Amino acid sequence: MKKRENGCYPVGAYRSVTRDERYWKQLAEMTPEEKVLWLEKTKNMVCALREAVKKCRKSIL
């Protein structure tokens, strides 16, 4: 998937990622330890995004 000029992926890009065979192949080739690390990084990123959204909402209101 190609990024837009502003560096963002088009809306709905997340849907195509899980349909991409490379995603599933890479996931299947990971060791259990690598999967745990990947999940931890993903969890931390989601938590950081949630905090950023909270701050934005507070600054808007």
Describe this entry's structure for a reader:
The chain is an all-alpha fold and about 60 residues long. The chain folds into two domains: about 1-30, no CATH class; about 30-60. The chain starts with 12 loop residues before the first helix and ends with a helix. The mean pLDDT is about 80. The protein has helices at about 15-20, 20-30, 30-60. The longest helix is centred in the C-terminal third of the chain and has 29 residues, at about 30-60. About 0% of the residues are buried. It is elongated.
Question: Could you outline the blueprint of secondary structure elements for this entry?
Answer:
Elements: H1 13-19, H2 21-29, H3 32-60
Q: What separation lies between the terminal Cα atoms?
A: 35 Å
> How many strands, what sense, and barrel or not for the largest sheet?
none
Counted by DSSP, the helix tally is 3
Q: What is the count of β-strands?
A: 0
C-alpha geometry: elongated
Helix and strand content put the structural class at mainly alpha
Rg, Cα atoms, Å: 15 Å
Give the structure's gist in a few sentences.
The chain is an all-alpha fold and 61 residues long.
Notable features of this structure?
0% strand, 2 domains, 74% helix, 3 helices, elongated, mainly alpha, 61 residues
